[in-house]
Write a structure and sequence with these properties.
Elements lengths: L7 E5 L2 H4 L21 H6 L22 H15 L3 E5 L2 H4 L10 H16 L3 E7 L5 H7 L6 H16 L6 E5 L9 H5 L9 H26 L4 E8 L2 E3 L4 H23 L4 H9 L8 H9 L4 E6 L3 E3 L8 E2 L6 E2 L5 E2 L5 E2 L1 H15 L3 E5 L17 H19 L5 E7 L19 E3 L11 E3 L1 H11 L6
Parallel strand pairs: 1-2, 1-14, 2-3, 3-4, 4-5, 5-7, 6-8, 7-13, 13-14
Antiparallel strand pairs: 9-10, 11-12, 15-16
């Protein structure tokens, strides 16, 4: 049986990690432009350190990134050579509305995306567009405080309307927000939130999340009005949390950790706040600005499919004495003794992908789309200048086997798979270039040096065969 005949194989990137050209084409400053390399990066991402304009003491890797702004034709030609059926990318909000508060969109910014989308269509590559991938114009952060304000909803709807009307005959698949649950872990990066000492942080994060959820529902409604054939998805940073032991305390804590992430998708997929979330707000004295009209729009405008990123599973314990932790992609997690880990401490768990797929499909009964999965590693050219990334091939192969089992054996409905960072790009978590995910090597280092020359890795040829065989030859 295997994958469906129209399975959407491809790759994924984000504007702020690959485009560069951060001041070109009339583009305005965004929160993601203020993420430097070094130890302050995470303090800024979490909103603990206020940083609202570039400072020359820092290096901001996203300002140039891999300069896809000027290389996109070359890059998409390489994607086409691999046989991509789908390319997931995001649209930089501040390229379309430089401040976010303008009435009229920036035509020069839109023309860039006209070219990018037309280049995809030239090769029969379907665009999968993320409307907001950790991207808030700083004009909106200054005017409203980012997503802490209800005014952000109208700004986001205005932005989305421009995109839907312009690309109504060219783009079928859309995601409203990337990894919407990341607002709890990196609130400045995820929603442009900066905290003051007196702020109730939990309340502010969940309030911002509520406004994003309402915005997502309003945009889903708008999308269907503009083109009923649009397919609108939500996007979750996924990965089940395992209990450290069979102690019921551990098991219950793992349930609670999973619910913390499912909460967002429960709302986007089912159309209402789950009882456990309402009880959590009551217990924590979190009071939300929640209008009756919000309830209606959430209920009537659920998503068509569930998309998610998967890099690893997580592990938790209710025992305060248990403390062997690992990095685990922003999410704090215990080290699982049954799993190997990447160079950055991310635990490698292919079966965890199958478990996650089954959990999501059982929970929502909606088609799934894996829009991020991959291995960040240091790639060093050999004596012939070639990059033999067998470790990446092995990682992807094992995850694809698990994905195939979820479809073939478990009956999960899966629309597609876009591996993360199909071309090397700036790491969101660390700002590094040496943490590479791509099938295509880009000559650029952590300090911004390099020719930006593109080069195929061994995995490029392997993935080409995977796509050609529709996942039969792994």
């Amino acid at each position: 049986m295997g994958f469906r005949k129209d399975f959407l194989w491809g790759g994924a990137t984000a504007a702020n990690q690959c485009e560069g050209g951060y001041q070109e084409g009339g583009r305005g400053l965004a929160n993601v432009d203020l993420m430097p390399t070094g130890e302050d990066r995470w303090k800024i991402a979490t909103g603990d350190m206020k940083h609202v304009k570039p400072d020359e003491k820092y290096f901001y890797p996203g300002h140039e990134a891999i300069d896809m702004y000027h290389h996109y034709k070359e890059d998409i030609a390489l994607f086409a050579e691999m046989g991509f059926k789908c390319y997931r990318f995001s649209i930089a909000w501040s390229r379309v509305f430089p401040l976010g508060t303008e009435e009229k969109a920036n035509e020069e910014g839109l023309k860039f995306y006209d070219g990018l989308i037309d280049e995809c269509l030239k090769y029969n590559i379907k665009p999968l567009v993320t409307i907001c991938h950790f991207d808030v114009p700083m004009g909106l952060v200054e005017a409203f405080g980012g997503w802490k304000s209800r005014k952000m909803i109208d700004a986001f709807v205005k932005f989305s309307k421009v995109l839907f009307e312009r690309y109504k005959d060219k783009v079928e698949y859309w995601l409203t927000f990337n990894e919407i649950n990341m607002i709890l872990h990196a609130p400045f990066m995820g929603a442009g939130l900066v905290f003051n000492e007196e702020d109730n942080r939990e309340e502010m994060k969940y309030q911002a999340a509520h406004y994003e959820l309402v915005a997502s529902a309003r945009v889903t409604k708008l999308a269907k009005e503009i083109n009923p054939n649009f397919k609108i998805g939500c996007m979750l940073a996924a990965g089940n949390t395992y209990a450290n032991t069979s102690n019921p305390q551990d098991v219950f804590q793992s349930l609670e950790k999973d619910r913390e992430n499912f909460f967002f998708i429960d709302v986007q997929s089912r159309g209402e706040y789950p009882a456990y979330a309402l009880k959590f707000f009551e217990r924590e004295k979190i009071h939300l600005d929640f209008l009756m009209e919000d309830k209606k729009v959430l209920r009537e405008n659920t998503v068509d499919f569930i998309s998610f990123s998967y890099y690893s599973s997580r592990l938790t314990s209710a025992d305060p004495e248990v403390s062997k932790s690992t990095e685990g992609n922003v999410f704090a997690t215990l080290r699982n003794p049954y799993l190997k880990a990447s160079e950055w401490g991310w635990q490698i768990d292919p079966l965890g992908l199958r478990i996650t797929m089954n959990t999501l499909y059982d929970r929502y009964q909606k088609p799934l789309f894996i829009v991020e999965n991959g291995l960040g590693a240091v790639d060093i050219p050999d004596q012939n200048g070639e990059i033999c990334d067998d470790y990446r091939i092995e990682y992807l192969k094992e995850h694809m086997k698990a994905m195939r089992d979820a479809v073939d054996i478990d009956g999960v409905e899966l629309w597609g798979y876009t591996s993360w960072g199909c071309i090397d790009l700036v790491s969101a978590s660390t700002g590094e270039m040496k943490k590479r995910y791509g099938f295509i090597y880009v000559d650029r280092d952590n300090e911004g040096n390099g020719t930006l020359k593109r080069q195929k890795k061994k995995s490029f040829h392997w993935y080409k065969e995977v796509i050609h065989s529709n996942g039969e030859n792994l």
